[in-house]
Amino acid sequence: MKKFLALALALVMVFALAACGEPATEETTPATEPAGEETTPAGEETTPAEGDTILVGFAQVGHESDWRTASTQSAYDVFNADNGYEMVFVDADQDVQKQIEALRNFIQQGVDYIILDPIQATGWDQVLTECEEAGIPVIIIDRTVDDSDKYISWVGSDFTTEGVAAGEWLKAYAEAKNIEELNILVIEGSVGASATLGRTEGFKQVADREGWNIIASQSGDFTEAGGQEVMESYCQSYAGQFNVVICQNDNEAYGAITAMDNAGVTYGVDGDVILVSFDAAKTALGLVQEGKLNACFECNPLAAPFVDEDVIQVMEAGGTPEKEIYMTETWFVAEDILESITVNGEEMPLVQVTDEVLAGRAY
Ligand code: GZL
């Protein structure tokens, strides 16, 4: 009954807005809003709903990567009238101040819940205090807030474990291929992002333990253009000196591939350079299957269902959700020469990318 009422009211509102000459399309966002590049950067959109629906405000990082597109799509797939929600969505275009402004606007709008994917790990305690004083629960997804605990739950991935996994795989792979010396270039993610900090820290733990040579580590800002720019610089500065490139997300790897192609540097299973990325978007997994990427370490972007089921619905029923809710991840590889790796003492399987694996991917 609740959903039917919300849907009926939403339809009434749509026709009312249309009659007033309002752009009806802004209020009739379907359950599956295409959230790709056409997402309004730094803009505000609202899914329609009326009545006793749950109003959530979502301050998203931006639209910088395939991963981000999937994360935004996941929110539109869940927080819409079909499921008893109305969502106010803000794309902060990788600008922390825009995110903080969005949270303050959500307070003014009187949303029921705030969802935040924090662009950077620090600088949040003041605005989270304001949310707490306004009595609005905040749910953090994906990246972490490291300087405040004024939020109900965090739903995301263990970035340090992702970095350790990449290091442990590289160790096992080099041994299997009889590669004795590893000279490594790293293309880091956005400066100050917990995903960057964690992946860097985790990989470095293994590199330090194994005595590997990390030649350089620069930020590509999690974008394809950034990855290409850094890789072009690396190819000029370290020509012939490196045999491993670690990209901290898929889009940086796409850019690095363009740069290495242009520089005549070979990579992947049959190349001179071992190429690794994080995220595991479908495009990247296709590159793994082709052997252009040697390995790809998943970071699951589909947090919205967990926020709905394990946090908001629990609170709506009067319960207390878990403070930390971890997503499940898979480590993908191009070849079947290794079945598993040991990460932090736990044996974890490696999945070779096949047509069947690709067909089963949601993003
Ligand atoms: C990781 C996420 C990162 C992705 C990038 O959880 O925050 O941000 O790895 C994205 O693709 O830009």
Automatic annotation (TrEMBL):
Main location: other
UniProt signal peptide: 1-18
Subcellular location: Cell envelope
MF GO annotations: carbohydrate binding
Gene Ontology cellular-component terms listed: cell envelope
Family: Belongs to the bacterial solute-binding protein 2 family.
Name of the protein in its database record: ABC transporter substrate-binding protein
Species assigned in the record: Candidatus Scatomorpha merdipullorum
